[in-house]
Amino acid sequence: MAEGIVHNKDAFLNRIASKLGRERTEAVVLPKWKHQPQWEVFKNDGADDLLGTFRKSSMAKSALVIQTERANLAATVKEAIEKYGGGLVVTTKDRRFAEYGLESLLADSKTHVWDAGLGKRNIEIAKQANIGVIFSDISLAESGTIVQFNDKDIARSVSLLPVTYIAIVPQSTLVPRMTQATQMVHQAAAEGKDISTCINFISGPSNSADIEMDIVIGVHGPVEAVHIVVADK
Amino acid sequence: MPMKIGEKPFFGRVDDALEKTFMRTAMASAQDRLRGRKLDATVRDEQIGDWEEWRSAGEEIRRHTLENLDYYLNQLSENFSRKGGHVYFADTAEDATRYIQEVAKKKNAKKVTKAKSMVTEEIGLNEALEEIGCQVFETDLAEYILQIDDHDRPSHIVVPSLHKNKEQIRDTFRDKAGYTGTEEPRELTAFARSQLREVFLEADIGITGCNFAVAESGTISLVTNEGNANMVTTYPDTQISVMGMERLVPTWEELDVMVNLLSRSAVGQKITTYVTNLTPQLEENSVDAPKEFHLVILDAGRSNALGTEFQSALHCIRCAACVNVCPVYRHIGGHAYGSIYQGPIGAVLSPILGGYDEYGELPFASSLCAACSEACPVRIPLHEQLIRHRENYVAQKGKMSEKLAMKAFGIGASTPSLFQGAVKGLPAIMKPLVKDDGISSGPGPMKLWTAVREFPVPEKNNFRSWFKSHKQEGES
Q: B161, B286, B308, B379: which to substitute to probe chain A, counting the most A Cβ within 10 Å?
């Protein structure tokens, strides 16, 4: 993408300003908000409290939660893959797989590691895959949510196309709620840093209640979800 | 006009709705469930503290954003375009659809997938794209159900197919798409998944609405559950997002508060399954991301509310919490409003966007019980705005016949002989209409009353004559 084209901006914004009864505003200082209840939620909770909340919330969102130690992570992931039917596995290209001792998973003949160099072929493989394995970048206790900062290696498809996603959740990524995650992104944006093209908050398998308000798990995204929390401190 | 539903006048639509007993029962039960879930996730959820504090936070953020709308839209546009996205500021629905048609033509697009979006419904985008030969696929389950049922219209902002039960959906799937399964929601949903799977991957353009845009980073945030919005924004080479011009927040920190208010108020979830935040990228080298990203920012009547008593109607985040508590919506359902925006917010918003000629009667579809204002997560004083609309409508519409009638009443009431004559003569005038001690079919202006309840028979004895004889009795 080259820099984008903007159409009809000034006439549009001038009309808004005139309806608001003034000239266009050149600088606005964001006020200090009087009401900020978001910072109070789980304010005094320690790591164990957050883990307990994350477990409960994940289960409420129909995601299975497994807790494990770093030394057992590879075995735990392998077991989870088998439990959910095995078959073709796709993973993101993420240095953390090696850091967490998961080389054996990557080396498995039934595992495809996302490789941008292969182009659209990756999508074909992810579509056939039974299981996608990803790492959570930030994990929200309140809602059992994993956050992914997607890019060419941390591909969006891995948590989207396979029947089941398995998210590895390093316990150090746990924060109380969305507030802490959006604050991090806000700080990056305020410092002029480029933010990820897709910042994805995912909480369990896809679902819908559009037919008579009955919740059905598994619509267009994954049908099953597993959150493996690994102690990393 | 695509925002409009049906051709009948308001009372005709209400009559139609009242005749549909099933629809009314379904609406009532869905409303109860949605309302219950919302209460569980808001006032009854102790984890988040005082829900009223959250509402105040939402109100404060929305007010500031709307008061500085030109500034934040400029910031959004600059950040979005700096990263390679194209921005089109559309004054009207027609401008928006024309721009999107041009993009589709340039891309030689054949297949278009869409995530749920009320704003594209408002501008009639599907028809515009079909006009130039595109095949448009609605992918949200409720929208998919409506689309394959010969483009039925939405009856609820959040769950557009709320008026259909599972048996009706099964029959539609069978008749229109060759479905052979049962009416089980799980099976019906699996059918939609299988029908759309390949379509997602083949589409040339993906179109979404926008729950919130983030000005500081040029980001479009989508709040969804089904995974379809992710499919729509991941595989097509071109993405187009359409937003009402008021749907933005200054920074990611305000996004947090607004997503929380929306998820809990709309569907009673702490957070929806997906909150997908998309920002264009100059060097897009991902295999599974759009290569071209367009943002259409729409006015289409919204600016009518700016600087007026209705400005706070633009604070709306489309959660439908007001719809889910409205006693009038409960009885007449969504289609009777004749607008894709129903319930209290629809009755406030539709006249702003489409004018009093088309939607002036909607503000009367309210008992003014104020449950809507109490439910609103950003504290829009909906019932007060309904009253303001009524005043404006009456002032603008004051019909000749009404003026004449009031004038005649004025003359009659201020002329003792005429007044006496009218009071005495009333029982005789009404006599032919009396049946079984009541009037159940009145003429002219009485008709609306007697359509739903009996009108009492005027007493033969009037107050003045009663008082006269009572006084005489007392004196004797």
A: B286
The answer to whether position A74 is within a domain reads yes
pLDDT tens digits along B403-448: 777 777 888 788 888 787 777 777 777 778 888 778 887 777 777 7
Contacts of B186 in chain A (CB under 8 A): 216
pLDDT at B401: 61
Q: For chain B, what are the domain ranges?
A: 10-304, 400-475
> Band of the pLDDT at B399, cuts 50, 70, 90?
low
Indicate whether A111 belongs to any domain: yes
Does B226 contact A207 at a Cβ distance shorter than 8 Å?
Answer: yes
* Structure confidence at residue B20 (pLDDT): 78
Radius of gyration of the CA atoms of chain B, in A: 27
Q: Mutation target for B interface from A123, A197, A227: give the one with most B CBs within 10 A.
A: A197
d(CA B276, CA B324): 26
Mean predicted lDDT score pLDDT of chain A: 96
B6: burial class by Cβ within 10 Å (0-12, 13-18, 19+)? middle
Number of folded domains that form chain A: 1
A142 domain-assigned: yes
Q: What are phi and psi of B243, to 5 degrees?
A: -130, 140
Using DSSP's 3-state secondary structure scheme, residue A150 falls into: strand
CA–CA dist B299, B89 (Å, integer): 8
| CATH superfamily ID and name for B10-304 | NagB/RpiA/CoA transferase-like (3.40.50.10420)
- Considering only A2-11, A206-215, B460-469, which range has the smallest mean pLDDT? B460-469
Q: Which residue is associated with the tokens 């969102």?
A: A61
Average pLDDT of the residues of chain B: 92
A65, two tokens: 């939660």
Residue B125 has pLDDT above 70, yes or no: yes
Query: Could you tell me if B34 lies within 8 Å of chain A, comparing CB atoms?
Result: yes
Q: For chain B, what's the residue count? A: 476
pLDDT at A83 over 70: yes
Look at A4 and B228 and tell me if their CB atoms are within 8 Å: no
Residue A233 confidence (pLDDT) above 70:
no
Does the beta-carbon distance from B201 to A143 stay under 8 Å? no
User: A145 to chain B: which residues are within 8 Å by CB?
Assistant: 271
Look at A41 and B71 and tell me if their CB atoms are within 8 Å. Answer: no
Inform me whether the pLDDT recorded for B1 exceeds 60: no
Alpha helices in B160-251 (DSSP H): 166-177, 185-202, 228-234
CATH code of the domain containing A165: 3.40.50.10420
**Strand, coil or helix: A61:** coil
Q: Copy the structure tokens of residue A69.
A: 């130690």
Looking at the domain assignment, is residue A139 inside a domain?
yes
**Token match 């030689």: residue?**
B108
Residue A118 has pLDDT above 90, yes or no: yes
Q: Which of B287, B292, B304 to mutate to test the interface with A (most CBs of A within 10 A)?
A: B287
pTM of the predicted model as reported, rounded to 2 decimal places: 0.91
Contacts of B329 (CB under 8 A, 6+ apart): B27, B31, B323, B337, B342, B343, B344
Beta bridge partners of A21: none
Q: How many CB atoms lie within 10 A of CB B357?
A: 10
- Write out chain A residues lying below 8 Å of B56, CB-based: 34-35
**Chain B residues lying within 8 Å of A209, measured CB to CB:** 159, 225, 267
Give residue A201's domain range.
41-231
| Residue B193 touches partner A, C-beta closer than 8 Å | yes
Chain B, 258 to 277: residues with Cβ < 8 Å from chain A are 259-260, 267, 269-277
